[in-house]
Amino acid sequence: MIAKQERESNIEVLRFLAMFLIVIGHQATHGFDVAKLACNAAGTFTIAMSQGARIAVDIFVLITGYYSVDQTIKWKKVFTLYRQVWFYSVSVLLIVSLCFCRQLTINEILKYVFPIYTSQFWFASCFLFLMLLLPYINILVSNIDRHQHMTLLVILLVPFCIVPTIIPINTSLYSHLFWFIVLVLVASYIRLYSPPWISKIKCWHGMLMLVSIMVCTSTLWGG
């Protein structure tokens, strides 16, 4: 059992950075036609910013996994998340249909009425199901030792993270929810075993790595 700990300030700073990256990333993605950006400094910078949201999502899930070790399902949070997503989804449906007089198809209406099941908002859908799975993931990590945990991470990270980074290939085995589970397993390993190298990482190391990933990704995408 892990004793309850207060939120660490450095984690909160990381969370704030992730929120900032999401805002900037969505602005870059939805404010520009990324596919038509020129291959110059401005275009590369915009594409790099668009990757910030992807990285920020992983940061949020890692933080969730780190603090969720040894926790049970919090049904109140699950229902609160579902209620909020449903409220905003139906509100958008009413605004589009009533204020803009747009005639929606049955499939479109069903997507707005059942936003979680139809993945109308992919992150909310995946995160809600992740919340339901967290206690069972914790059962798994509490019944394996450190070596088994590391072996599991290698089995998951090599084909779904390292190989696609080196070789641009797609696999039908990948899904957002599956990747969230992998991130939780990574975070739980860090929380349970606190690898010595973690404490040696400085803030500027993380910032340098973050910028490098964004620039490399944008170069590959833009090139």
Structure description:
This protein has ten helices and no strands. It has 223 residues and is mainly α. Helix 1 (9-31) runs antiparallel to helix 3 (52-67), helix 3 (52-67) packs across helix 8 and helix 4 runs antiparallel to helix 6 (122-142). The mean pLDDT is 80.
What is the radius of gyration computed over CA atoms, rounded to a whole number of angstroms?
20 Å
**SS summary, helix count:** 10
Q: How far from one another are the termini?
A: 49 Å
Average per-residue pLDDT, rounded, comes to 80
Reading the helices and strands in chain order gives HHHHHHHHHH
Percent helix range: over 70%
Given as residue ranges, the uncertain stretches (5+ residues, pLDDT < 50) are none
| Strand coverage percent | under 5%
Question: What characterizes the major β-sheet?
Answer: none
Number of strands: 0
- What structural category characterises the helix and strand content? mainly alpha
The global form is globular
